[in-house]
Amino acid sequence: MYVLQNALRVDGSKHAVRDAALVATVALLALCAAGCQDDGERKPAARNTPRETALPGDTRPNLLVITLDTARADHLGCYGAAAARTPH
Fold first, then answer.
1. How far apart (Å, rounded) are the C-alpha atoms in residues 86 and 88?
2. How far apart are the C-alpha atoms of 64 and 49, rounded to whole Å?
3. How many Cβ atoms are within 10 Å of 70's Cβ, its own excluded?
4. pLDDT tier at 26 (50, 70, 90 boundaries)?
5. Sorting pLDDT into bands at 50, 70 and 90, what band is 47?
6. pLDDT per residue over 13-24, tens digit each?
7. HEC secondary structure over 24-84
8. Separation CA 56–CA 82 (nearest Å)
9. Whether the predicted model's global pTM rises above the 0.90 cut
10. Integer Cα distance of 76 and 82 in angstroms
């Protein structure tokens, strides 16, 4: 208990933030370890066959479009912008 009280002090010492972060990290690791604990009971899988992800007959391709509006030619050195500070 002394460690926790000491770590949570707000007296402005240079190690207060480090100590609080250490206590928070240890607490998080303890919670993760408790959550990973096996209780010995094995539950059967809900299904033995893989689930269908697409509808039957749906042959359309999946398409993901990513755009960047800040990657204009006047902002990138690779496209000739003299004022741009990019490596290439």
1. 6
2. 28
3. 6
4. very high
5. low
6. 667 777 888 889
7. HHHHHHHHHHHHCCCCCCCCCCCCCCCCCCCCCCCCCCCCCCCCCCCCCHHHCHHHCCCCC
8. 54
9. no
10. 9
